[in-house]
Amino acid sequence: MNRTIGPAMLCMGLLSASSNAQAVYKCEAGGAVTFQQIPCEVAPPPTARPSAQPSSAMLIGQWRSNRERTMTWLRLHASLKDAQDSFLNQMTGYLTLTFTSNRVKSVMPDRDVQVAGKTIRFAGTSDDHFYLVAAATPTLVSISNVDSTTGSATVTDYHFEGPDTMWTRFDPHGKTALDSNAREYFRRTR
């Protein structure tokens, strides 16, 4: 028996040493198992919540940034410098959020923006990740997910002003110099 195991182990060692194999990750999500060459997506850590998870039903669907409503709100309630107003007026209205029961996909297309008289090309973004509902009321859904840039858990609140209108703070985590009253409105597109 030792005679057959030895050569087999030697062959396996030679094969693995001579191949240019890449790492393969076994990932599980929602009961499905996949094998992929990139690390598995990290699910957000559970937040303090009752055993029955609150519902994300109000969020589910596709939402598009509402420039007119957003800019009206900002001009009435937030303190913006002229340059901030101009920039936000050019950038809002393009972001799309698509929610399923446990994933959110955000898509912002490439945009040419005028800044200080110069045209600047902003590269679009597309992000798709898991989320958990941390809390829900008839007018608010709070979700917890993992920030793709820092790897830390974040909570984002979505406030509803009817079934087809919601808003969220522009800077819920304090990363920009925007007024804390700055919010972006979204309208349901499907």
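Above is the first protein from milestone M3; the second protein from the same milestone is given next.
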Amino acid sequence: MYKLLHKLFGWDYVYWKNSADNGIARVHKAQEGVVYYYRYKSTQLIDKVLKKEQVVWLTCPASKYLEN
């Protein structure tokens, strides 16, 4: 599904994982340059992407959003 949304709208996606759960989320970039994704959209829980190794980039290279 994320591949189709990327192709239709150009949205980028990451795969995230922690000790309790995992998932695929859309990447967002705030005006301040902060890159983030909603871990749980229903509860508006946001995770910031600080390092490119923090998530698996599915539809684009990390360099598109991060400089390090």
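Note on the second protein: The beta strands are 13-17, 22-29, 35-40, 45-48, 56-57.
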